[in-house]
Amino acid sequence: MILKLMKKEWKELVKTGKIYVLLFVFLFFSIGSPVIAKFTPDIIKSLASGSEMQGIIIHLPPPTWKDALLQFFKNLNQIVFIVIVIVFIGSISEEKNRGTASILLSFGVERKKWLLSKFLFQLFVTFIFVLFSYILCAYYTYFLFKEISIYSSLFATLLYLIYVFFVLSLLIFSSSLGKNTIQSAGIFFAIFIIFNLISIFPNLNEYNPMSLSSFENQWILKGVLWKDAIKNIIFTLIYSFILLFLSIIHFENEEL
Amino acid sequence: MNVIETHNLYKYYGIKKVLDDLNLEVPEGVIFGYLGPNGAGKTTTIRILLNLAKPTKGSVLVLGENISKSRKYLRRIGYLPDVPNFYNYFTAKEYLEVLSEIIGVDKKRVEEVLEIVGLKNEKKRIGAFSRGMKQRLGIAQALLPDPKLLILDEPTSSLDPQGRKEILDLILSLRGEKTVFFSTHILSDVERICDRVGILREGRLLLNDTLDNIKKKLSRRIVKLKVDDPLRMMERVKKEDFVEEVLIKNQNSLIIKVKDLQRAGKKIPEIIVQENLSIMHFEVSEPTLEDIFFEVIS
């Protein structure tokens, strides 16, 4: 049943054209990140050689594969994150609002399975896109810089996938709670901002999923250090499962 | 056998009582008209029957299953919501194929139901459908699992006369094959296609019987009268011992429930003459469902 429901989600993603948005964004940033890292110093130098800036000496260290990967993760955590939220935030609330959820559930489709199919589908699609763009980014980085640490960059990507797991759980939670897309987005960003505000307290960092992005950067720069991140990973997964559990409980009891 | 039974069913939203001790019985094989003004609790009843809402108190049996214990019965139900919304980016065929896959129905059934509702050759996306077409697609979707029971929530309320006729003909064509539970506030629709009627008001079931029985009970005792001063006529006729009740239906019309029709036939014209009133209409008639409805809810 879950696979059949996921198939319906896939058809929806294709028919609504959302898949092309995801494809474009991931492709753009997987190829764009190493290119930007490689040519930014050259661009700055050429600007500095213009007549207005003559006399100014700019020393920039030669870019490395690390700059390319840092740029890649920066884009994943900002623009790609926003796109994922926009594409998936209404997945449950909009179906509740429009009444399409009631129709499916009136056929005896289990609520829990319906909700989980949404989550698993979003997880599957996002994971595939992230891994695909990582491979593309790594290939381009190697092509432009002639070196890359697959070990560091791959594990930093896995760390990002754990963060994505949390973000998607929060999206499902917000979407199951909200009665429409606007409400769901409000719930999502309220919780997201709270987690970001917690980052102000350094002693709480190891319990905060938002800190995973700083580990991604550290692993790229200094190498993989599981010991530092393990507590963070465990807490992120715990929060994710709690959010999923609460979503199911709420949705099972919600009147449609 | 009853396909729907509710026992002492209550539903509250906060302090608002929406269903009040509802005891509903729908026998197998009938087209059941669930009548009531807007806000009477029709949609709430349907949502409870479909497990989309939970009763505050009471029990519900659908197709012999207690709905609070099992949801398997839903596999044998077809449902059309009051405002059916679909995934607009699909064509009717694509939508029903996706649905048939999810609920485990043979894809051949898609062609069959599209044929029944006359959408077999429709290639447009659902988003471009008219209301009538959406309603027909809704019925196709409800028929997809070949259900024993069809639950239709106000299937004709938003349609033009042509669309209404099409949908009613469609429902009528299912007579004998399925039990149809059909909520509406359009009395003429019920009168046209239903075998049995339940009248709901403020969450209470005021009447539940076959349309024939209801009419038989009341048919011998109704006189419809139209005079130039209905109020004076009402006051005067009320005092007569053959009169049971007098209702003003609209501006000039009176509905007089009488105990003795023969006496009424003689006396009413006499009273009109005595009171010097002008008679515009006099009819001893079978009551319409509208008459019954207004009588019951008043």
UniProtKB/TrEMBL annotation, chain A:
Q: Which residues cross the membrane?
A: 76-93, 119-142, 148-173, 185-204, 233-251
State a GO cellular component annotated for this protein: plasma membrane
Q: Which UniProt keywords apply?
A: Membrane, Transmembrane, Transmembrane helix
- Alphabetized GO MF terms: ABC-type transporter activity
Quote the protein name from its UniProt record.
ABC transporter permease
Organism annotation: Dictyoglomus turgidum (strain DSM 6724 / Z-1310)
